[in-house]
Records
---
Amino acid sequence: MNGSCETLKDIIENLNKADLDPQTEVVVAPPTLYIVSVRDHIKSGGKPNLAVAAQNAYSVASGAFTGEISAQQLSDCEVPWVIIGHSERRTLFGDTDELIAKKVEACLSYKLKVIFCVGETLEQREAGQTLAVVEKQLAAVGDKVKDWSDIVVAYEPVWAIGTGKVATAEQAQEVHKGIREWLAKNLSSQTAEATRIIYGGSVTGKNSKELSKKPDVDGFLVGGASLKPEFVDIVNANRA
């Protein structure tokens, strides 16, 4: 819940002017109030690899759900992407695995592309439950959705979000590899190979290069650093 009309305009103008790696897809997710404005600023820049996303959507198309927005409404406003299952939605607002799966299913039905978030708390990691927790979260969506061609999986260890702590490149790779193996076992080898798995958790311009070198880290879900000029460095992490 960051940004204002002026600051978000500045951020998008900076991205429009920046020399971004054309091979990297960049999606920005402003607060709901600013989505259409940000969408229009992005369009004015003409970068084909830059798009806008919503931070959340509800599982029902319309009705008496005050304060929510639906996948149908996002589609109507030409918002192509949506984040579903972010850890803050899970921990602060009580989104369950079941509700998140319904949200993913609803968004896909309206042809939105979904950034589907999974991850464990510090307590769960210290108990050795990381992969079990992540696989349970994946399975909830896997039970409802068999075509994952419009899903990007974002692994965000809750203990590393906004804390300054970051999973080591090896820790991130271990979980990303486990996610890819789950996809291969429970969906198909083709799905496992094609699905992008991105890392989120105190990503910075400094640590993004090391993380990006890992074979199963396909990109990043960036929080605080997306509001800073170093976001361009993260976008360009794969450039030689």
---
Amino acid sequence: MVKSYLRYEAQSTFGVIASPGGKAVFDHSGRLSITPALESVIVWDIKKGTQVARWSDSDNTAEVTCIARSPNGKDYAVGYVDGSIRLFDLTGNTVNVVLNGHRGSV
């Protein structure tokens, strides 16, 4: 068994691409990871290692700083560097509400 391990290669890898300033949040079932990726939010299926959805707003160019899950498990508040907060719906992958008013990063 001399160097027999060299003939094995990894079949595939799964790395979550994320912004350095934000932290990933899991959905209520723990199956999905909602991850900040610069000005977008990417929803990953953890078990399959695939991207399920990408949330973004065409009016926004600011970086995501934080994500919070609502108690109902389907709405997510996403805070941005410019002080805005957008509420996304997990099932529809749409922006429900845009809240502006913070002077600094959320």
